[in-house]
Amino acid sequence: MITFNFESVVSSNREPYNNVAAHEELKSMMSRFDRLNIFFDIDEDGYEVIKVESTYVKRFAYQLNDKSANWLMAYLSTGKSEDFGIEPSEVQKSDQTNGNEYRKNMLKLFVESKAVNIQFTPEFRDRRGQLTAVANFKFGNIFFFINRDEDIVSYLQEKELIR
After folding, report:
1. Helix H segments across 3-137?
2. Cα–chain-centroid distance for residue 140?
3. Could you tell me which residues come within 8 angstroms of residue 84 by beta carbon, excluding any fewer than 6 positions away?
4. β-strand 130-137 against 60-63: which pairing, if any?
5. How many CA atoms, within 13 angstroms, populate the side-chain half-sphere of residue 160?
6. Is residue 130 within 8 Å of residue 148, measured between CB atoms?
7. pTM score of the predicted model
8. Predicted confidence (pLDDT) per residue in 69-120, tens digit
9. Would you tell me how many other CB atoms lie within 10 Å of the CB of residue 98?
10. Domain boundaries of the chain, sorted by first residue
11. Do residues 95 and 26 make contact, with C-beta atoms less than 8 angstroms apart?
12. Predicted confidence (pLDDT) at residue 9 exceeds the cutoff of 80
């Protein structure tokens, strides 16, 4: 019989996420005018992130703060990638812990802003129990994959965005 002794198992001390390197990679993608595909999420450490990818770069996470989010939106709309004043290491943990709730709140923020047209996948075409939406910009797309619940459905029906 095998006996295990877990007292000698040391917890792993992970390095903090290198958001500065992620920022540099994102800036490099912008300097090539890559069309970005973006997904909102909460990372394993509790930070608000985008998962970003392009035709040339595999998906990676980028932790957001207010300035970096505005920088990202400016790029998506205009193609301008100037990052003066952006401090990618100055991020704070999110009040939200659930990635689905965060994505739902971000979708509502985009709907309320009326800054961009959002396309919704009809329910009969979508995955069961899911709601899919895309905000299209000149230099990329933001994808929203959300669990379909009464709250988000009634909100979008009230706004006459889905039936």
Report:
1. 19-31, 66-78, 99-113
2. 13
3. none
4. unpaired
5. 0
6. yes
7. 0.87
8. 999 999 999 999 999 999 999 999 999 889 999 999 999 999 999 889 999 9
9. 12
10. 19-158
11. no
12. no
